[in-house]
Structures are given as structure tokens and as C-alpha cells.
Amino acid sequence: MNTDVFILFFNSFLTTVLSVAAVVWILRKQYLPVIKQLEQEEQEDMSDEKHHEHS
Amino acid sequence: MTQTIFFIVLAIYVVLGGIVARYIKNRDDFYVMGERGSTVLIVGTLSATYLSAVTLLGIAGQSYAEGPLVIAALGSFGAWIGTLIAVIYIGRKMKALDCKTMPDFFEKRFNNKTVSIIALIIMIIGLLGYGVIQLIGAGLVLSEVTGISFSMMIILFTLALLVFCALGGMYGVVVTDTIMLFTMMAISVVIAPLIIGQAGFAEMKALSETIPFYWTIGGAEERPLGWSISQFLVWILFFSCTPALVSRVFPAKNDFVILKSAVIGVFFAPFMQVIVFIAAGGMQVLQPGIENTDNVMVLGFLNHVPDALGGIGLAGLMASIMSTASTLFVLTGFALARDLYEHLFDKKLSEQKSLRVGRYAQIFVAAIVCAIAIAQPSAIYWISIYAGAIFGVGWLPTVVGGLEWRRMNSKAAIGSMLIGTATFILVDELARNEIITLPVHIDSLMISFAVAVLALVVIALSTQPNQYELDYYDFMKQQSMSKNTIEQFLQEGRSKGLAKLKKEYKQTVVISIVFIGIAALVWGYFFVMLGF
Questions:
Q1: Which of B260, B285, B385, B442: disulfide with B39, CB 3.0–4.6 Å?
Q2: Which ipTM value was assigned to this complex?
Q3: What distance in Å separates the CA atoms of residue B442 and residue B229, rounded to the nearest whole number?
Q4: Residue B61 CB contacts under 8 Å (≥ 6 apart), including other chains
Q5: For this UniProt entry, which segments traverse the membrane (chain B) (predicted)?
Q6: B117 burial class (0-12, 13-18, 19+ CB within 10 angstroms)?
């Protein structure tokens, strides 16, 4: 195996891996908590509405 | 045939520029295309700007002569990482602060005229110096190929640039970049693979028997590893703060567009370059002994692929010149009109007048570019040595310090920008005139970057930020693209906003996974064919 050729294609692949890692990190850190919180708020609202309907 | 292609490419630019101009209604349309950029458009302009004539001419030539790994394995890797930093870190943070141009950041962060003026001078010298020299180099090659005189070619290029930069502004640049990207992609997807196919992987690998070390990182010239590592670092510094790439983020519609563009655009950076460099290696099998190595890919297009594809290859080369030049020149015009005339001279202009000033600035820049490119004064060659990398030493420490350090202030910014740039020129001149000898494999850019960082830290520690700078730092830390995008989505109502957020989130994750797969397939294939 030619190690130098491996380095070229490994670095080419690593570039995409790094960009994906950065993007996924941002998504999980900055978006996922907000999405979960909004989902929870929506569920609470829905259960409140049901509660009102029953009472 | 070559002349016909040349005129068709120019005509497409002019027609598109005219069409796009109809959408320019106000200054935001002109400067950041009304922040309506979709993923396709942002990926298009990012990738098209990234692929310059340097790849298809200079570095392809070096890959042909010394071996495809010499620049690609580490030097280009630095450029890809630099592009990622430019988009996902610097561009994204600046857009969150509502910057329409990069000098906006200096103005907002420090509110100091001296800082803004120095930043502007660095920007204008950097963009014009780098842009004009690329235009001259590429123009000389194209002039030889098409038989059109160099002066006439530059005048025609400038007129085409003028039409869509002055009429369409950033809108024109982004749309034409995206369309031109398809011709550039044809080179990587069809033409270069055809050249590689004709040469044959086995014959290409066998080149190392006739040209020792051809398939090594050091290449036929047996460059030491330290040189390659130094190239890697230099290209990171060069790309991560260059306005041509950072500003591609500003027209994006929202954060998800930036994130998707980071994945796709950064994948395209190696995809468009490495395959061309390997094809340049293939040319060593098909047509050894080319003396003017800058012409390698042009000869490949003309002699080793069917005529129609060769024509598309030439169109791709022209597109790469135009897309890089248009971005560099449109930004110079913006710097003159918006950052210098409107902001620094405190001119309060109406929407229409601001638009008119922006267009006049484009005409002014086009005239200057045309005159310099035709006259080719020796000073432009001197400036070009420093122009490309000036943002790495002049801007990068101040930008990162400004974004991350509470203590950062205008005095540190002024000191760092001036000392960094002056050290760069001084050390490089002394080394090139053999008055001093630099340590082995240490580039003048690396030394001056270290000096700029040191100057910034020392001055910042020995001075105090003023109240405005402290307040703006606190304000800045509360801003983020994700926050802006979430607010933007929730304006449509909570349920609708949440659904949109979830949809964009999923789409971004899927794109990320798909591109990991594509990257593994493409690079895995080439590794299997060339690595054993």
C-alpha cells in the first residue's frame, strides 16, 4: 500500500467527516434542546386542552 | 471553436446579469441578495468561488510535473479546512451579527475609524491584488488558446463583469456562480475522469518507475515533509479569513442553509480539485514533455477528450476565472461604496441613491481592474505576492480575538493588523533578497501570523477595552445564527415553526449522512485504484 496516496484520500474523506461532525454538533447542541422543549410545550398545551374539554 | 465557446460563456454572463438586475429593488438585494439565498445558490457560489484558475492552471501544472500528491495531500487539505472555518465559524458568526460585508464586523465590534480604515485598506489591496493577478495569468493562457489578443480579452472580460456586477450586485454574482458551477463540475465529473480513463490507473501508477517519487507527497522534486506541512498551515491561514469565502455565507436564507452548504460545499472543494490533479498526472502518461505546464489541462481538453466535451472544459476554465474574479471585484466595489463612502464618510443615502453609489463603485473597480490588467505595472506583481495571504496575518488574529476575547480592543486590533502586515512584507522581502535566512520550512506568513497574535495579546493585556467594546462583546455573545433562525421560524406560529425546524433538522442530518457515504465511495475508489 502506498501510504502517501492513502494520506491524500484520507484527508479528502476527513474533510467531509470534519464538516459533518461540526454540523451535527451544532444541530445537537443548538437545535435539538429547543425542538424538544417546543415539543414538550406543545404536548402540555394539548393535554391542557383535553383537560379543559373533559371538565 | 475556442473563440465560439469564449463568446458563448461571456454572453451567458451578460444575459444572466441583465435578467437578475430586474430583481434588485433595494440595497439589501444588491449587497446580500435580500438574504434569500437557498442551499443550491450558496453551495454554487461557495464552490465556484473556491475553484479558481489557480487549480486548473498553476497547481494542475505542478501536479503534472512533480506528481498529483505534492500540493493536494497537505497544502490543499489546509485550504479545505480553511474553507470549513470560513463558512461555519467566521461567516456564520458574522452573519449572526447582521454583517453585510466583512468590514461591517470591524465597524460594529470596535466602532473606531482607524480600525475600519486599516481593515478596508487590507481588504482592497488583498482582493484587487489577488484578483488582478489571477485575471492576468488566466487571460494570458486563454489568449494563447483562443487567439484573441490579451488586451481585447481583458476588455471583454471586464465588460461582462461590469454588466452583472454593476447591475446584479451580489445577486448577479451568486446566480452566475451557481450556473457556471455546472460547467466546472463537468470537468471533475466527466472530463477529468475521461482523461484518467484514457491514461489508465496502471500506467499512471507506473509513472513512479520513470519519474522517481512521482506518487509521494514530496514528489519528483523530493520536497521535504516540512515544506508540505508548512503549505498546510499557510493555506489554512489563507482561506479561513478570506472575504471571498466568508462573505458567501451572508446571502444565506437561514442557518440551515449555511449548515447544509458547509457539508456540501466543503465536500466539493476536494472533489473539484483532487480529480483534476489526478487527471493532470494522467496527462503525464498521455502527453509527456509539456514545457509550459500551466497549459496541461487546456491541452487535455483540446487533445484528449471529444470536441464537445473539450469545449465544455474550456468553458469551465473560463467560468472558474470569471466566478473568482467576479466575487473579488464585487466585494471591492462593496468596500468602496458601502464601507468607505457610506459608513466611514457618514453619508446617509436613500435606498435608490445607495444602490446607485454601489453601481458606480462597480464601474470604477472594473475600470481600474481593466487598466491594471492591460498595463501590467510591475507593482502589481509585487503586491500579488502579499495580497492573497494578507487576510491571514492582517485580519485573522483580530477577527478571532474580536469574536472570542472580552479584553480585545481597538488598540490591539490596530497594533495586530499593522504589525502583522508589516512583519509579513518585511520578513518576506528580507528572505527573498537573501539578507536573512528563515528557519527551514518556516514560511514568512507563519512568522508574521505569530507576531500578529503576540502583538494583539500584549497590547490587549496592557490596555483596556472601552465601554462600547465591552457592551458590544456582551451583546455579541448573546447572538447566534441558531437563535436568529429559530426566532425566524417561530414567527410563523409555534406549531408551524416547530414542524419547519424538525423538517430542516432532519434534512440536514440526512444530507450529512449521504455526503459521508458519497465521500467514502469516491475517495475509497480512487484509493483502491491508485494506492495498491
A1: B260
A2: 0.91
A3: 9
A4: B280, B292, B293, B294, B295, B296
A5: 6-24, 36-57, 69-90, 117-142, 148-167, 179-201, 232-250, 262-286, 308-336, 357-374, 380-400, 412-430, 442-461, 509-530
A6: middle
Q: Quick one: cell of B32? A: 446580500
Residue-range domain boundaries for chain B: 2-10+38-531
Residue B405 backbone class (left: φ over 0; alpha: ψ -120 to 50; beta: rest): beta
Cell of A2: 502506498
| Facing residue for A35 by CB, picked from B80, B502, B520 | B502
Cell 497574535 -> residue: B453
Beta bridge partners of B252: B37
Which grid coordinates are listed for B430?
A: 528580507
Bridge partners for B37 per DSSP: B252
Q: What are A44's three cell numbers?
A: 402540555
- Cell numbers for B172, please give them: 448577479
Q: Which residues of B touch A37 (CB under 8 A)?
A: none
- How far is it, in rounded angstroms, from Cα B360 to Cα B341? 11
Total number of residues shown for chain B: 532
Residue B211 · residue B220 · CB < 8 Å = yes
Does the distance separating the beta carbons of A39 and B505 come in below 8 Å? no
Residues 6+ apart with CB under 8 A from A43: none
Q: Which cell goes with B460?
A: 490587549
**Interface residues from chain A to B (CB-CB < 8 Å):** 1-2, 4-20, 22-24, 26-27, 30-32, 34-35, 38-39, 41-42
Closest to B46 in 3D by CA, of B327, B265, B319, B250: B265
d(CA B74, CA B228): 6
Q: Would you state the cell numbers that stand for residue B18, as one nine-digit string?
A: 441583465
C-alpha span between B239 and B88 (Å, rounded): 13
Rounded Cα–Cα distance for residues B532 and B518 (Å): 21
Burial (CB count within 10 angstroms: exposed 0-12, middle 13-18, buried 19+), residue B115:
buried
Q: From CA B383, how far away is CA B299, in angstroms rounded?
A: 30
Q: Which CATH superfamily is domain B2-10+38-531 in?
A: Sodium/glucose cotransporter (1.20.1730.10)
CA B326 to centroid of chain Cα atoms: 11
Give the pTM: 0.91
DSSP state of B295: G
Q: What is the pLDDT along chain B (532 residues), one digit of tens a residue?
A: 677 877 887 788 788 878 888 888 877 888 888 888 999 999 999 998 888 878 888 889 999 999 999 999 999 999 999 999 999 999 999 999 999 889 999 999 999 999 999 998 888 888 888 888 878 877 887 787 788 888 888 888 888 888 878 888 888 888 888 888 888 899 999 999 999 999 999 999 999 999 999 999 999 999 888 888 888 988 898 899 988 899 999 999 999 999 999 999 999 999 999 999 999 999 999 999 898 888 899 899 888 998 888 888 888 888 888 888 888 888 888 888 877 877 777 777 777 787 788 888 888 888 888 888 888 777 777 777 777 788 889 999 999 999 999 999 999 999 999 999 999 999 988 988 888 888 877 888 889 999 999 999 999 999 999 999 999 999 999 999 999 999 999 998 888 999 999 999 999 999 999 999 999 999 999 999 999 8
Residue type, B336: L
